[in-house]
Every structure is written in C-alpha cells, then in structure tokens.
Amino acid sequence: MTGSKRIYALDTNVLLHDPTSLFRFEEHDVFIPMTVLEELDEKKKGGSEVSRNGRQVSRFINELIERGGGQGLRDGLELSNPQGVKLKRGAVGRLFFQQRASHGNGKADNQILASVIDLRDQHPDRPVILVTKDINLRIKASIYGITAEDYENDRALDDFALLFTGSDALPEDFWSRHPELRSWNERGRTFYEVNVHEDEQWYPNQCLYMPGENDVELRVLQIFGDEDARKARLVLLDDHTHAAHSVWGIAARNREQNFALNLLMDPDVDFVTLLGTAGTGKTLLALAAGLAQVMDQQRYREIIMTRATVPVGEDIGFLPGTEEEKMTPWMGALTDNLEVLANPEEGGSWGRQATNDLLASRVKIRSLNFMRGRTFLSRYLIIDEAQNLTPKQMKTLITRAGPGTKIICLGNVEQIDTPYLTETTSGLTYAVDRFKMWAHSGHITLKRGERSRLADFASEAL
C-alpha cells in the first residue's frame, strides 16, 4: 500500500448490509481482516437477505481474485466494477487482505480491532479508518485511537429533520403575489397555473394549504418551463373530511389525512409513502382507499399487504402453515383495521361477518421472503412497517410492480427495529427522498394522532 490515500477497513456488518460497499470508496484502498472472511463464511447458508448478501460478497471477492489471475494478493486487487453491476465511479482503489496473524483473541470484534491496529502500525503515514455499523465497536476503536465511522454511502440525508414532509403552508399574500394566475374548471375540478418564484421550492404532488378563514388546499400537479421561468399547475383538492366524500366510510379527521386520501385515490400516483407515529391513521387510510378502488371502482384486482417481520425477521419458515398463516400473527394492524372497515350499520353480527369475509377475500397477506422474482399486475400493494427495510430491500419490493400496480409504503421512523438501521439510512427515508422529484409519486407525513385521547396523551407524556 503506497501513497497518501486512505485505507478503509471494513467490518462484516458493512458488507452484509451492502455487498457493493467494497466498490464505494472511490480511489481509496479497502482492507478486509481474516475474521471478516470467516464471519462471511458463517453467514452464507440460508435464504435470508443477510445470507444472500454474504454469498454475493464472496462472489465479488472471488471474481476480483480470478480477474487478477490469482496474482497480486499481496500488492492488492484492483477494485474495478464487478460483472453485471453498474456503478458511477472515477478512480478506483485496491483491495487488501490481512496477511499477518492477529494478536486479538476471544470476540470477533476484538480480533478485527487488533488487525486494524496492526494495519495502522504498518502504515503510520496513511490514514486508517475502520468502517462499521456497530456503534460499540466504534467506541472501542476510539479508545484505542483508531478513527471509526459508520457506513454512510446509502444515507438518504444528513439530518432527518430535513426530510421532505409532502406538504407546505402558503403565505397569506399568495394570491396577490401571483397576479398572472390563470384558473379554469375541467371535469368538475378547479385548476390553477402560476409562475413559480425562487422561494417556492415545490415538488410534484406536493400538497399546499393556506390556513385561516379562507382555507384552501391544493396539490402541485406539474412543474414545467425553463429554469428561469418555471410554471406550476395546481389542482384544488377533494374534501374528504365530510361524510359525503368519505372513502369506504372513512372521513379524514385532519388536513394531512385529507392530503393522504387524495394521493391514495389518484390513479396517476403510482407510489405513495405515509410517515407518522402510532395512531395517525396510516394503515386505516391505505386500506380504505384500497378497498374503495378494488371493490367499488374495480381499478385493481386485489389488495396485497406485507410487512417486515422484525424481530423474528427471516425466520417465519419455522412457523406452521401456509405463507398467509405464517404472516397472520404479524398482521394485527390489518385485522384490526378490517374490523373497523367491515362494520355495517345494518345486518347485525351476521352482516358484519359476511362483510368481513368478503373483504378478507380481496385482501391477501404475503411475506417479504416470497416477493423476490414476482411481478404484480394491477394490484394495490401495501408495505407496512417499511421503516425496517434497507434501501436494497425497498428497491427489490418496488421493482416488483407491473403495469397498473400501486404501491403504498407505511412506517414510523421513530420505531426502527432492524439492527444498524437509523432514521437517515432506513429504506423508507431513502424512498421518500429519491421519489420526491417523480411526477407519479407522493408523500405525506401525518402529524396528529387520531386513535384515542388516551393514546394521544400517552404518545406525548410517556
């Protein structure tokens, strides 16, 4: 290893989190301790996402060795792009392996740390950085004077507070600021076209509102024109707060819920993300809109609902029964909300049971484990607890959508159960940030709890 380039030593959890992390350090060199290779070997068996990632890392390393003809292990293997993987890159570094026996013993973390300390001592003229998603290992490294960092290549943004909320308040002088405004009615809806000012950072399908007596709620349909003369086409939102405009018997209880129902009911919006704490109505709104479009409008064939099964994770195969029966214990939110939606005023208990059976026949429960390789046509797909998905898992799910399919992702980033995922690296945060510029996606952050006064108080006080 020569020159002033940095050396990044990778922990096992980084490679299992993102197999392409090997190739993400630009012109800098990458070092893999022998303990990491042993842990990869232990993780390779099974059908879980972690096992698949472990096997992929091994294939990448083997490809690099074969490309070098088995030579150059001591001088490093060039980290050029692996076959079939497209990465935007400039200069590339080299991959090195631990050559000397480690003095560490006991826990794997201690052996990895010992190998990194040895690496630093061998190359005092070069910065050596340990990259790990294990916060305790980063603390240990700091104690021994080793620079340690989290793997941040898939971080959607630096500060979660900067995440796009999907809605924005308009100033009181909005109408006077846009004297050139053009309005018209078409198919029973009111449209506006305005010039976009420099301080108006709008995105497609963003919801805008003007609070106060003259309450107005709009949605950005399109932004077009040159960079110096941008225009926006806005539409007046449907008011789902009144029972007359309810969706499958569910009326919006606040502004954000009304925004969400407008996005969920729009056939031109293929991808919707809803963030919110417990009790904000994410699942109920998504199910109500899905049932209205499956049963009444027959826009979709059926509703498919899935979620990340954390903490059991990938182990649902050990549960007895079919795929749906395995998932049922995890789908309490679905069954609870179906009870609310299948509660006709007439017909008594028999009518409720008949309605519940009818709805259940059009709602299918699927496991994330069985999603790989499928294509869903004309389906309404709800992904619950999406905050527990990695960006790679999120991509795998979204790319299952075939023609006519709508995907809704629900989650609360304050309740992430997946190890090593944070608010800024969650697949849900990643999707919200990456899709906000797309004309066929929408996002809303639900702010007010509507479950009960007890639940609302508990959320604030406890």
Describe the protein's architecture and organization.
The chain is of the alpha/beta class and 462 residues long. The protein folds into 3 domains: 7-149, Rossmann fold (3-Layer(aba) Sandwich), CATH 3.40.50; 161-236, Phage tail base-plate attachment protein, domain D1/D2 (Phage tail proteins - horseshoe like beta roll fold), CATH 2.30.300.20; 253-461, P-loop containing nucleotide triphosphate hydrolases (Rossmann fold, 3-Layer(aba) Sandwich). Helices cover 31% and strands 20% of the residues. It contains 14 helices and 18 strands. The protein has helices at residues 12-17, 34-43, 49-67, 108-122, 135-143, 174-177, 255-264, 282-296, 323-327, 332-341, 348-361, 391-398, 427-435, 453-461, and strands spanning 7-10, 29-32, 77-78, 94-97, 128-131, 147-149, 167-169, 182-186, 189-195, 207-210, 216-226, 229-236, 271-276, 302-307, 363-365, 379-384, 406-411, 441-446. Strands 3-4-2-1-5-6 form a 6-stranded mixed β-sheet. It has a 6-stranded mixed β-sheet with strand order 7-10-11-12-9-8, with no helix packed on it. Strand 1, helix 1 and strand 2 form a beta-alpha-beta unit. It is elongated.
